[in-house]
Design brief:
Shape: globular
Distance between the termini: 35 Å
Low-confidence stretches: none
Number of strands: 0
Structural class: mainly alpha
Mean pLDDT: 93
Number of helices: 5
Largest sheet: none
Radius of gyration: 15 Å
Strand content: under 5%
Helix content: over 70%
């Protein structure tokens, strides 16, 4: 594979773009539904990190994210709900660290 190619990320990006194009949900609804799906599959922090920027742009608040976790908790269970909360917190910490690094380089 030639250097600089990212076939896995490119595929995920294309799938996401196609999904968004075919969806009539508002941007904030779309992010919240995707976060619920990530919680349901016990996604790792990197998956949540990929949604931080979009969530901020869509005006999704921490309270709305908590509401989603409360709503899906009876369906996905305590362990996955707590895992999601932990992974979201870790993703936010990573996003903050990256932002701080970028600001310190300016």
């Amino acid at each position: 594979m030639p250097a600089g190619e990212t076939p896995v990320l490119d595929t995920i990006g294309a799938m996401t773009a196609e999904s968004v194009a075919r969806c009539s949900l508002s941007p904030d609804e779309l992010v919240l539904v995707r976060l619920a799906a990530l919680a349901a599959v016990d996604a790792r922090p990197i998956s949540y990190l990929a949604h931080v920027g979009v969530a901020v742009e869509a005006g999704v608040t921490l309270e709305r994210v908590q509401d989603v976790l409360v709503a899906v908790a009876p369906i996905i269970g305590t362990a996955r709900t707590m895992s999601a909360a932990t992974n979201i917190t870790e993703a936010l910490g990573l996003a903050i660290a990256v932002a701080e690094d970028a600001l310190s380089e300016e």
